[in-house]
Amino acid sequence: MKGVLKTISVFAWILVLASMLAPLMPLPDPNAVELGQRLMPPFVNGHVLGTDLLGRDLLARLLSGTRTSLLVAIAATCVSLIAGTCIGITSGFYGGKTDAVLMRGVDLVMAFPYLVFALAIVAVLGPGIGNALMAIAVVNVPFFARTVRGAALELAQSRYVEASRALGASNARLVLFHLLPNLSPTLLTACGTTFSWMLLETAGLSFIGLGAQPPHADLGTMLSDSRRLMLVHPLSPLIPGLALVLLAVSGNLLAARRT
Q: What residue ranges define each of the domains in the chain, with the CATH number in brackets?
């Protein structure tokens, strides 16, 4: 089992590296349509993985879509991390009415199913990869806020924090030099897990047409475009699907190693 998981991680890192280096590779334009080359099998006419329904090179499109999905998931994770950490630390460190008000706001957001809430946000802002990024970032803020609040509440009552406060340390110093360094393991684990969620959430929004818009693509758009080709050209949906699985599983494995 460990060997299988290690193999998954290796392939995922290869995919990530290849997607980031894709602009430097001699690959066809991932958005170039060639109807005369549609649904070509692998290794025909220079197409390593074949082509899709519109004759676009699958390898170029896979690497481009993977890069887009990764960048959106990473950016959304960072936005949620920053916002959720600020809310969680403020709530856990100050406690009292501040904690009550902030946590009731978090509870209000968590009362809605996160995917339904994300759909509502995109419906208001309009379809697009940027709006999808903001939607999935917002709906995941409560996860970070709750996680950080619990850890910060415990740390704020620890002896070394009380000792530093007695010596005259300001609240800003306590947060920056005592709470945040001790919260880093918790935050790293939460980031690894949330990254996998956001990757799948981004793909889900794109799959239903609310994420990346044509001619640009991410992994979800590739799955949507090829969902009816499973029997006639199985590589078209299989390739982005496998890429999503590899990246999501690897994100969880990375988070598990931090625990």
A: 2-13+71-258 (1.10.3720.10)
